[in-house]
Design a protein that fits this description.
CATH class of the largest domain: Alpha Beta
Strand content: 5-15%
Oligomer: single chain
Radius of gyration: 19 Å
Strand order of the largest sheet: 7-6-5-8-9
Number of domains: 2
Distance between the termini: 6 Å
CATH architecture of the largest domain: 3-Layer(aba) Sandwich
Largest sheet: 5 strands, parallel
Helix content: 25-40%
Low-confidence stretches: none
Bound molecules: N-carbamoyl-L-aspartate
Length: 309
Amino acid sequence: MSNLKGKHILHGNQFTKKDILSLIRLASDFEKELKRKAIIPLLRGRILATLFFEPSTRTRLSFETAMQRLGGGVISMGSIEGSSVAKGESLIDTVKTISQYADILVIRHPKVGAVSEAANATSVPIINAGDGSGQHPTQALLDIYTIYKELGSLNNLTLSLVGDLKYGRTVHALVEILSHFNIKLYFVAPNSLRMPEEITSKLKEKGIEIVETEDLISSAKESDLIYMTRIQRERFSEPSEYERLKGIFIIDNEFLKKVNKELVIMHPLPRVNEISPEVDFYKGAAYFRQVKNGLYMRMALLAKVMGKK
Ligand code: NCD
């Protein structure tokens, strides 16, 4: 039985290497099984609730699909405007209420730490689907599953993480998970959007080799994989600062020609302009495969947290 049973899933640092490998194995089993079956009814009769206080397409719909593919049911708070949050109800009271109906809750919130606070208020497992610029642990799990599938290994790899490393919660969670493996990292960001120092120094203490640079072409030439991210417009206090930085790194066919080597390109999506649509036809463009992997990985996580694997 997994040691994730009954646990809140809040931070990329909570997983052991064994947890990660076992989730990858289960996601892969589910992926194969879903080629033959429409559902794998391990969670029949269980209810998942989604509470999203920030926009989402993939995270919410993939969790809802994952629960239904496992035979469970889904309730969703729809819009904030349609709920008692609009009347001023607190997050804690909202979570305590929904805990009376559901067996597991998936929450996204704009404030760093808010999902952990909510988790302290209930014993029903809470999954952090993104807390401001904090963490996004389930994205990191589907990302590592994708890296493994695309490159066939999780060791002796060089990866470039590119874009908004300051506010991007996906990269904050991903590096925690990557830190279990023998991986060299390029952090490619403008000076004002560098990876927070406390994250970088912790990684270095763990023995991870890190190069911080603004030179995307050179780092791409050294890398097996590029993980692009969106400049997180909603986290900027100065709109002009966003305007200045939004086009800073762009991958298009011309860029790929200059790099002139086989590369895997990932992105948590949504993209704005960082990857030109023409790149979708490139063999290494993995971002829509990455979307699909999210379904399998979230199924694996739900099955483990609910104690069914
Ligand atoms: C990301 C997020 O919400 O943090 N999206 C996602 O979950 N796939 C990335 C982003 O919004 O840039």
